[in-house]
Design a protein that fits this description.
This protein is α/β, with parallel strands linked by helices. It has 2 domains: 224 residues, Periplasmic binding protein-like II (D-Maltodextrin-Binding Protein, domain 2, 3-Layer(aba) Sandwich); 101 residues, Periplasmic binding protein-like II (D-Maltodextrin-Binding Protein, domain 2), CATH 3.40.190. The protein has 16 helices and 10 strands. The protein is globular, with a radius of gyration of 22 Å.
Length: 330
């Protein structure tokens, strides 16, 4: 009996040690986001479906508004990753910091230009319509702001003299159009559909996802030292996000159910319209890959808007090796 009791005790000790070891292996990470957006739904899906948990990762999302604040959270090690355009990695590279995009989420420019109700409808002449207007867009340093500058320049207008640009927090854009303090708004869902239903504006007069095509708009970006110091954590992180993308594409109803949990105060009609638009505009990356062509578009935006001052090559800010290593298992 003493021998059996001894074996049982050893088993208990062993199992306890194993459980403690497993618990110790779980790594907590924070993903910084510039706003809470349905555009990031595949990331939320990965969290809700437990894909990070299965990789031994406890992931949470922290919303930090204000230009490049989400990037700074990663640079200062307050967060493991941020979701945003890889141009932020290029900005950091130009200043001597090393960030890498490791998996894609939003593969189209997720913003739309709308005109407040009461204005004459655009005739197709973008330059003539936008000239002398007041445009409300996101804060300087954010991708919507860069796209605004790019579209203005591409239309043949001078950013400083041909129109008035108001840079503000995302939440203020709807209020600015509603109060007629702005004529044009640069925004995304769910604000886009909410404004249409409220009668503040009609459908966008400039659809960035369609106009600019494949665009590395919102990738997940980490410090290069994370790649060097903990490649297995990075690999698990990439696999979880890629699985979130796959689920989103394969199960629209299941993805919508998770969206309802993330946006509980949003009406069901608005939620459905938002998700329908995302699929119609091919918003989400089909698998998580970041193509050189999609970075060329993103780079053209920030260089054309004169925000990025030097050409930063794809390989200096994007690392697809982890995605390639997990792709066969997806």
């Amino acid at each position: 009996m003493r021998k059996i009791a001894g074996i049982a005790a050893a088993l208990v000790i062993g199992l306890t040690a194993f459980a403690g070891s497993s618990q110790a292996e779980t790594k907590e990470i924070i993903v910084a986001e510039p706003m809470h957006s349905i555009g990031y739904l595949p990331l939320y899906v990965a969290i809700h479906k437990g894909y990070f948990d299965e990789e031994g990762i406890k992931a949470s999302v922290m919303t930090i508004e204000g230009g490049g604040a989400h990037t700074n959270a990663v640079l200062t090690k307050q967060a493991f990753a941020f979701i945003g355009g890889p141009e932020h990695n290029a900005f950091a590279k130009a200043k001597g910091a090393e960030l890498r995009a490791v998996v894609n989420v939003v593969n189209r420019g997720n913003v739309y230009l709308v005109a407040r109700k009461g204005l004459d409808a655009p005739t197709g002449d973008l330059k003539a319509f936008m000239k002398d207007k007041t445009i409300a867009t996101g804060a300087y340093g954010g991708t919507p702001n860069s796209i605004t500058r790019y579209v203005i320049t591409k239309a043949g207008l001078d950013f400083k003299s041909d129109l008035l640009v108001k840079e503000m927090a995302n939440a203020g854009i709807m209020a600015a159009l509603k109060a007629k303090q702005a004529d044009i708004g640069v925004l995304s869902e769910p604000m886009l559909t909410a404004g249409i239903r409220e009668g503040l504006w009609d459908e966008p007069f400039y659809n960035v996802p369609n106009e600019l095509g494949a665009y590395a708009y919102s990738t997940l970006n980490i410090r290069k030292e994370s790649i060097d110091n903990d490649p297995e954590l990075v690999r698990g992180f990439v696999r979880a996000v890629a699985r979130g993308l796959k689920f989103t594409h394969d199960d629209h109803d299941g993805a919508a159910e998770i969206a309802r949990k993330e946006f509980p105060t949003m009406s069901l009609d608005d939620l459905e319209a938002t998700i329908d638009r995302a699929f119609a505009d091919n918003l989400w990356s089909p698998d998580g890959s970041i193509t050189p062509e999609s970075w060329e578009t993103g780079k053209a935006v920030v260089m054309g808007a004169d925000i990025l001052k030097q050409d930063i090559p794809y390989a200096d800010i994007i690392d697809m090796s982890f995605f390639e290593s997990v792709k066969p298992s997806l």
